Amino acid sequence: MIKKQKAVSAIQWARCLALTVGVVLLISSLGCSRDRQATISLQGAGATFPYPLYSKWMSEYQRLKPNVRIDYQSIGSGAGIRQIRERVVDFGASDAPMTDQDLNAAPGKILHIPTVIGAVVVTYNLPSVNGELKLERATLAGIFLGEITKWNDAKLRAINSTLALPDTAIVVVHRTDGSGTTNIFTDFLSRSSPLWQQRAGKGTSVNWPVGIGGKGNEGVTGQVKQLPGAIGYVELAYAEQNKLPYALIENPAGEFIKPSIGSTTAAAAGIISAMPEDFRVSLVNAPGRGAYPIAGFTYILIYQNQAHTAKGRALVEFLQWAIREGQEYASAILYAPLPIELVPRVYNKLRTITY
Hints:
This protein is of the alpha/beta class. Helices cover 42% and strands 18% of the residues. Helix 5 crosses helix 7 (180-192) and helix 12 runs antiparallel to helix 13. The termini are far apart.
């Protein structure tokens, strides 16, 4: 009898243990399921112009929100516009505002969220030249038109009399991909030269009269570094990171301005009061003394009506952080933060997003 009771107790104990283990495994499974559900992945693609800053933002934001994973592909503004229009990504990025035609072709209303301001610089490879190169607007257009082909051309020597410019052929380097940086730069050339406007115009892609191509800011930077006599246009951070010199550019006031956070901010200051409700605006040749003339906002592109509630909320929260706390990281990577008076307007625009 005692043996039978012990056997029954052993069976009951085993059943109890199995039940306990089962409950623990069930709770663990549910916990893992919740963890998986809590992880939100966001995919973005577009402009190479802000890539150094966006990488920093995403790294810092993941420290604050470990469950939010943001992946950004630096593939050019043109591709970013196309992918957000086709809903391939959760957000696009572009330095060139979308055209009315692109916006009308999208399956929903797309908002432009300005994130920071950047300067497009004219960088060059002249190892023998010591000192800062100055470039007039018309002269710069002449170089990219292929009319000025040597570094010691009379027009270049006239405004750089203190520099020993070499008898070296100029190698023009430009972007091959659809690019917001190209849009800003060709906007400047179009405003500087009627001939440029007639022959090439402005846009994310143009028919370049001369030169060789590189993909992205990275590609142009690499070409300029490798080719003596080369000249190209890149975002300021890329020139700094690669220790490439960049020229002082003539602005509408006739000043030769060095690209910097201060001179880029000055460009924005002359535009803010007249900035449209949708934020699509050019900062090229902005009025005012001290304003660097080849600058622009860079934008995140996002649908006003988000199809996925959790992802939509996570994206909006990230952008709210970026336009407020995230601005403190901009200057260190040579981007000008948003003007303080613009931040509430952008924040209010984000509040119009629905899920």
